[in-house]
Amino acid sequence: MKITILDGYTADPTGEAWKGLETLGTVTVYERTKPEETILRAKEAEIVLTNKVCLRREEMEQLPKLKYIGVLATGYNVVDVEAARERGIIVTNVPAYSTESVAQMVFAHLLTITNRTEHYTALNRKGAWTASPDFCYWDTSLTELAGKTFGIVGLGHIGQRVAAIAHAFGMKVVAFTSKSAEALTPSVEKRSLDELLAESDVLSLHCPLTPDTKHLINRETLQQMKPSAILINTGRGPLVKDEDVAEALSSNRLRAFCADVLTEEPPQADHPLLGCENAFITPHIAWATAEARARLLDVAINNIRAFLEGKPKNVV
């Protein structure tokens, strides 16, 4: 069985983890693959693993040996699932491996805004505390989370974990979700989208990217939010319209925007959010803790093992 990994670097920069596949077949690992290289690299493979390299109908038509596609992520929009199904190709993903890590990043971003630890650490390295006439100093607002309203769009695994953490901080948690009010935990109250936008002091996005949710946050919905609100996106970049968020920040209609994802990754140097003082952007690393990547690789390898045993799991 020939196994080809098209973009293995981000999941495991060392390459060591892929050795677990060597008992299952002949393994070829590419750190990165450009779109024009996909066919050549995958044409002999029966099993292909991909994270961000797209496998559409066009590619599948030129890969007659392909039997299995393993997506090294939870989201599988990089694969044309319908085309795969027509050709009898099994497609699997890795669900829920990054729940704890992404939830942690949400609050790392939030606490960056409310407590400004990096800001004060940087000032102190320049001698600001040493030069202070008082035992303390501050030149930014400092915010307590308890009693504030935390709004969540989407209550899947990550959204539910974020809700639990927000509740532990003493926050009122409200959510826009397809789940019924009766299905929610007592600490979460259901809201319409309009109500959520108007009430939230913090709004965190955890819904899937669909035609209905693309640019869910735009000029109009931003105008429904409090100017003091903090917006957090660790879901999918296109859930927000980047230029509209940049405009809201520059006109003081939004306190801060925190994101681990952008519409285009990596972004262009002139991306409107990169220069915004109150935009705090991390480079799509919420999923990338050592623990989460270990779970990802373990599940991905077990998915292949199950497929070879004729009992595929995590099929999308």
What does this protein structure show overall?
- With 316 residues, the chain is α/β, with parallel strands linked by helices.
- Helices cover 30% and strands 15% of the residues.
- It has ten helices and twelve strands.
- The protein has a seven-stranded parallel beta sheet with strand order 8-7-6-9-10-11-12, with helices on both faces. The protein has a five-stranded parallel beta sheet with strand order 2-1-3-4-5.
- Strand 9 (202-205), helix 8 (219-223) and strand 10 form a beta-alpha-beta unit.
- Helix 4 (99-115) crosses helix 6.
- The mean pLDDT is 97.
Assign an overall shape: globular
Q: What's the β-strand tally?
A: 12
Major β-sheet, in short? 7 strands, parallel
Number of helices: 10
